[in-house]
Design brief:
Elements lengths: L1 E19 L5 E21 L4 E3 L12 H15 L8 E7 L10 H16 L6 H9 L5 H6 L3 E4 L4 E4 L6 E6 L6 H5 L13 H6 L7 H7 L1 H10 L5 E3 L6 E5 L2 H8 L7 E8 L3 H9 L1
Parallel strand pairs: 3-4
Antiparallel strand pairs: 1-2, 2-4, 2-5, 2-10, 5-6, 7-9, 7-10, 8-9
Length: 286
């Protein structure tokens, strides 16, 4: 029997880089909120131990795909603790709408959905903490998707504090370029000295993203998209880009602006949500 699981996008409502560690990783403070929009993963449980991804991603070998890596990691962990049913396997397919290199967390969300859904379908019984720890090995953003609640993140993004923030409407625009994260973090002009502040302080400040200045400098289309959006509403980059977003109080206000978008700018409207659509589906499956 096929089951379908949401793999939602996220926005970084703010992102500040507070330093750089000796190992090269950057320390940051960021605010994650989910969108009621994203990819959909379909899973058919198998009973012969086979694990297959039926919808390969161009340029990404299946064994390197985060969905398969997450599933294999879960298999190993559950098997080592004697909690993997004999013959557990799956056919997995994905309806992909989130762009790669867009700063919406698509790959990390896919990995988290695979972990949460397969843990449930196989009846492994691993805890959320165990799944989040597993997810961190796949990427710094995976744990927030596993835990499923909007969060303030610190460290390299792995120290999470659940928060509840206003659920606004967003026009999310993709400028048509993909930005590899290392391009932003390796730029010598990237701000790396934002002051470390409490979440209470940060929520009272105007939100911004330290990566935005570099994305706008190096990618003309990102600069053009933000320049256009800023004429209508507060707007900024999400993550390291390339997607940008404008915030609105109502869906209709966001749609009115999207209807005026130039042809070269692709976008969608979504609601910011503090509880992940994956968590809501997962709770409904129990």
């Amino acid at each position: 029997m096929s089951t379908r699981w949401p793999s939602p996008a996220k926005l970084n409502l703010f992102l500040y880089i507070t330093g750089q560690r000796a190992d090269g990783y950057h320390t940051l403070q960021t605010l994650f909120q989910f969108l009621d929009y994203g990819d959909t993963i379909t899973i058919d449980v198998r009973y012969d131990g086979e694990l297959r991804l039926l919808t390969p991603v161009d340029g990404v070998p299946n064994d390197e795909n985060l969905i398969i890596r997450a599933a294999r990691m879960l298999m190993r962990a559950a098997a080592e603790s004697g909690r993997l049913p004999e013959g557990a396997g799956a056919d997995i397919s994905i309806d992909k709408c989130l762009p790669m290199g867009g700063g919406l967390g698509g790959g990390s969300s896919n990995a988290a959905t695979a972990l949460v859904a397969l843990n449930h379908l196989w009846g492994c019984g691993l805890s959320v903490d165990e799944l989040a720890t597993m997810g961190l090995a796949l990427g710094a953003d995976v744990p927030v998707f596993v835990r499923g609640h909007a969060a303030f993140a610190e460290g390299v993004g792995e120290v999470l504090t659940p928060v509840t923030v206003t659920e606004k409407w967003y026009l999310v625009a993709h400028p048509g370029v993909s930005i590899p994260t290392p391009v932003i973090f390796s730029d010598p002009e990237l701000p790396r000295n934002s002051p470390h502040r409490s979440i209470e302080t940060l929520l009272k400040c105007e939100f911004s993203n330290d990566c935005e200045v570099i994305a706008r400098k190096r990618f003309r289309k990102v600069d053009a998209a933000l320049s256009w959006l800023l004429e209508y509403a507060p707007s900024r980059l999400t993550g390291t880009g390339a997607c940008v977003f404008a915030e609105f109080d109502t869906e209709s206000a966001a749609r009115q602006v999207l209807e005026q978008a130039p042809e070269w700018l692709q976008g969608f409207i979504a609601r910011g949500v503090n509880i992940s659509p994956l968590m809501l589906t997962f709770e409904g499956a129990d």
